[in-house]
């Protein structure tokens, strides 16, 4: 593979607040050659996800940071282009975690073979992959929706939020979405069938949300934090469940956070209204993945779950697209078409 070049995007600098293009650098190096027991992957599609913002910081989290100069981490759909591994043949398509680059070596660990005849392979990065599973596990295991209850979720046109609302409806609950902008609002209401949708960029979010949740909120699937949480909190019913999945409004904030400390007030409400507030990382529910694949494939097949992808072209476009996602500029599961394969 001497003549094949690997293009990769590395972390050039740790962001100060919101990431900027100069925090990334594109490099070109010779593509690696597989040794005995290894395969060479050509990346077809790269997934861009909010968690990558956390990996850009040095701070300790639930996963190790990307080193400065290291290849940005990320889930991919890739094609086996050379194999010295008995379990993989050239031409096979796999789900991998090979990062922001065009080629990568693998010893097969953690790869999942994908069947293009079963579903578009890109869905393994979205509705039938980690984000869809996050919605499924967080909503069903922590939220435990019951018929007639009200479920609220923000980032509702994205891969996690869109699945949360649609699964809530399948379970007989009322789904209320929060989105940024009129296009997303129309999509979530008209195409995904949420019962109500509000725009967090329009004036009076608390008033709008109150109008959309006349019987209060039984489950708030927390994706964003910030001003959305402030609008949700007074509407939470006794025994509300709050799966804390993400806080994207805060990912680029170093703190201390502005405004008065509202923690004592919040804890009083947690106590007196018997809230269940539980953070989670999706892999904690790994034992539920087989049920997820079965249920979600069925719901997609019978049209009860729909999804939208937002595909940008070329690895070079990844930094700008990623920065845009943190500001709500993506519309659906954000993917980068890295190569045609
Ligand atoms: N715990 C886990 O294991 C786990 C796994 C996967 C994802 N997550 C989390 O789940 C959340 C959703 O992920 P996703 O992949 O589905 O992302 P996504 O919806 O594709 O993209 C993020 C969306 O967040 C919204 N947003 C950004 N800043 C906001 C703000 N200040 N206020 C309100 N909304 C804001 C934007 O949508 P609008 O334009 O509609 O506002 C943006 O499009 C993220 O917090 C992510 O970190 C957690």
Can you walk through the features of this model?
With 341 residues, the protein is an alpha/beta fold. The protein has two domains: 5-126 and 307-337, Alpha-Beta Complex (Quinone Oxidoreductase, Chain A, domain 1), CATH 3.90.180.10; 130-301, NAD(P)-binding Rossmann-like Domain (Rossmann fold), CATH 3.40.50.720. It is 26% helix and 25% strand. It contains nine helices and 15 strands. Strand 14 (309-313), helix 9 (318-326) and strand 15 form a beta-alpha-beta unit. Helix 2 crosses helix 3, helix 2 crosses helix 8 and helix 5 crosses helix 6. The longest helix has 14 residues, at 130-143. The protein is globular and about 65 Å long. It starts with a strand and ends with a strand. NADP nicotinamide-adenine-dinucleotide phosphate (NAP) is lined by residues 49-51, 131, 134, 154-155, 157-161, 179-181, 184, 200, 223-224, 226, 228, 245-246, 248-249, 280-282, 325, 328, 330, 334. InterPro entries: ADH-like_C, ADH_N_2, ER, GroES-like_sf, MDR_fam, NAD(P)-bd_dom_sf.
Question: Which small-molecule species are bound to the chains here?
Answer: NADP nicotinamide-adenine-dinucleotide phosphate
* Level-2 CATH architecture of the largest domain: 3-Layer(aba) Sandwich
Instruction: Provide the β-strand percentage band.
Output: 15-25%
β-strand number: 15
Radius of gyration: 21 Å
Low-pLDDT runs of 5+ residues are: none
Protein name: NADPH-dependent curcumin reductase CurA
Domain Enoyl reductase (ER): 19-336
Keywords: Oxidoreductase
Organism: Labrys wisconsinensis
Topology:
Elements: E1 5-11, E2 24-30, E3 39-47, H1 51-55, E4 76-83, E5 93-96, E6 103-106, E7 112-114, H2 130-143, E8 150-154, H3 159-170, E9 174-179, H4 182-191, E10 196-199, H5 205-212, E11 217-221, H6 226-232, E12 236-244, H7 263-272, E13 276-279, H8 289-301, E14 309-313, H9 318-326, E15 333-337
Parallel strand pairs: 8-9, 8-11, 9-10, 11-12, 12-13, 14-15
Antiparallel strand pairs: 1-2, 3-4, 3-6, 3-15, 4-5, 5-7
Helix pairs in contact: 2-3, 2-8, 5-6
NADP nicotinamide-adenine-dinucleotide phosphate (NAP) binds at residues 49-51, 131, 134, 154-155, 157-161, 179-181, 184, 200, 223-224, 226, 228, 245-246, 248-249, 280-282, 325, 328, 330, 334.
């Amino acid at each position: 593979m001497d003549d094949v070049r690997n293009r990769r995007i590395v972390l050039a600098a740790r962001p100060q607040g919101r990431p900027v293009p100069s925090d990334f650098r594109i490099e070109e190096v010779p593509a690696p050659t597989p040794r005995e027991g290894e395969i060479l992957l050509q990346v077809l599609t790269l997934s861009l996800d909010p968690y990558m913002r956390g990996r850009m910081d040095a701070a300790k989290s639930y996963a190790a940071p990307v080193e400065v100069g290291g290849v940005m981490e990320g889930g991919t759909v890739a094609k086996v282009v050379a194999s010295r591994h008995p379990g993989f043949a050239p031409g096979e398509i796999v789900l991998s975690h090979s990062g922001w680059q065009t080629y990568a070596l693998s010893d097969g660990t953690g790869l999942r073979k994908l069947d293009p005849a079963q579903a578009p392979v890109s869905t393994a990065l979205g509705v039938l992959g980690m984000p869809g599973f996050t919605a499924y596990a967080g909503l069903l295991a922590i939220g435990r929706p019951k018929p007639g209850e009200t479920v609220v979720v923000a980032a509702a046109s994205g891969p996690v939020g869109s699945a949360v609302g649609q699964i809530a409806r399948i379970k007989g609950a009322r789904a209320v979405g929060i989105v940024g902008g009129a296009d997303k609002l129309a999509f979530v209401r008209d195409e995904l069938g949420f019962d109500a949708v509000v725009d967090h960029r329009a004036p009076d979010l608390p008033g709008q949300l109150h109008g959309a949740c006349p019987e209060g909120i039984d489950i708030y699937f927390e994706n964003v934090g910030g001003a959305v949480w402030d609008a949700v909190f007074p509407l939470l019913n006794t025994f509300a469940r709050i799966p804390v999945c993400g806080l994207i409004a805060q990912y680029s904030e170093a703190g201390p956070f502005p405004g008065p400390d509202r923690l004592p007030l919040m804890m009083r409400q947690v106590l007196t209204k018997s809230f269940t507030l539980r953070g989670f990382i999706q892999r904690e529910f790994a034992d539920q993945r087989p049920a997820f694949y079965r249920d979600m494939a069925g719901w997609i097949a019978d049209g009860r779950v729909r999804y939208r992808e937002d595909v940008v072209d070329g690895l070079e476009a990844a930094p700008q697209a990623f920065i845009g996602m943190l500001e709500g500029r993506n519309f659906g599961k954000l993917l980068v078409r890295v190569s045609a394969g």
